[in-house]
Amino acid sequence: MTPRLVGMCHLPPLPGTCSWQGDSLANITDTALQDARTLEDAGFDAVLLQNSLDRPTRERADHLTVAQMTAIATTLKAAVSITIGVNVIKNDGPAAMAIAAASGADFIRVKVLTGAVLSAEGIVTGCAAETHVLQARSGTAVKVWADCYEPTSRPLVASDFDAAVADARDFGMADAVIVTGRDLDETLSLARDTSSKSPRLPVVIGGKVDARSIRAALSVADAVIVGSALKREPGIVGRVDLDCAMRIAKSAAQETYPGND
After folding, report:
1. Three-state SS for 148?
2. SS3 call for 64
3. What CATH code is carried by the domain that includes residue 215?
4. Using an 8 Å Cβ cutoff, are 223 and 3 in contact?
5. What H or E segment, with its residue span, contains residue 5?
6. Residue 226's pLDDT band (cuts 50, 70, 90)
7. Helix (H) or strand (E) holding 130
């Protein structure tokens, strides 16, 4: 079952990265654990772990990062009952799969599973084959969530969103697709259109959502990933705030479904 309400845990810069600020791995793990517990207490269904502050960004993580994130994910898996997801930098699907398989995490997010984009890292290319080979070797059932035209990158060819969804679904073997537009209205429109054209494929909204719009988002998508809106000061820096998370979860719980009174 696809978790409906997913909260981001943006890790502080990890030791060994250029942006590392001197914090120990133990302290970073405690920080991640606090975020995961806050999301669980607020009523979220899942936490998505990402080393999004390891900068400058690149397409693949090194061995140290994989080991560190495996340790963190393993700690979270043992400490909370909600679903655990892993997203390594922007697009290291093989590393995310290895971490998830070793830690017992439930799903991974891959932002360019198929195709190619121009991004801050340069040209980022699909990694579906390597990701699924590792999944098969691990013997696990880790789910693969794939972004379609994630907004921090630009497709190298003329934009064809329907083709991107079809590529992720058919060639990338994605278990769910993530859609995020340039603003809320475009995001909701993309999710609605994708759900209509691919009714058996879980559709996840990847951003642009807060407490005021979570009900609208869940009315057109199977799940929503919330990041910036979980912070007192919106952004990827800082920790998950319980009050912010509870407002979102409370609003999501009031969702009405078609046919319900």
Report:
1. strand
2. helix
3. 3.20.20.70
4. yes
5. strand 5-10
6. very high
7. helix 128-138
**Number of CB atoms found within 10 A of residue 177's CB:** 27
**Residue 258 within any structural domain of the chain:** no
Peptide bond into 234 cis (omega under 30): no
The token duo for 2 is: 């696809």
Q: What phi and psi, each to the nearest 5 degrees, are found at residue 132?
A: -75, -30
SS3 195: helix
> pLDDT (tens digit, 9 = 90+) per residue, 101-144?
999 999 999 999 999 999 988 999 999 999 999 999 999 999 99
3-state secondary structure of 50: strand
The residues, any chain, with a CB within 8 Å of residue 71's CB and separated by 6 or more, are 25, 29
User: Which residues form the domain of 159?
Assistant: 5-253
Is 75 within the bounds of a domain?
yes
Is residue 73 included in any domain, yes or no? Answer: yes
Q: Could you give the number of structural domains in the chain?
A: 1
Tell me, yes or no, whether 260 lies in a domain. no
Cα dihedral across residues 162, 164, 169, 174: positive or negative: negative
Secondary structure class of 214 (helix, strand, coil): helix
Tens of pLDDT, residues 134-179 = 999 999 999 999 999 888 888 887 678 999 999 999 999 999 999 9
Give, in order, the Cα–Cα distances in Å from 29 to each of 19, 34, 83, 231: 17, 9, 17, 18
State the residue for tokens 């997203």.
87
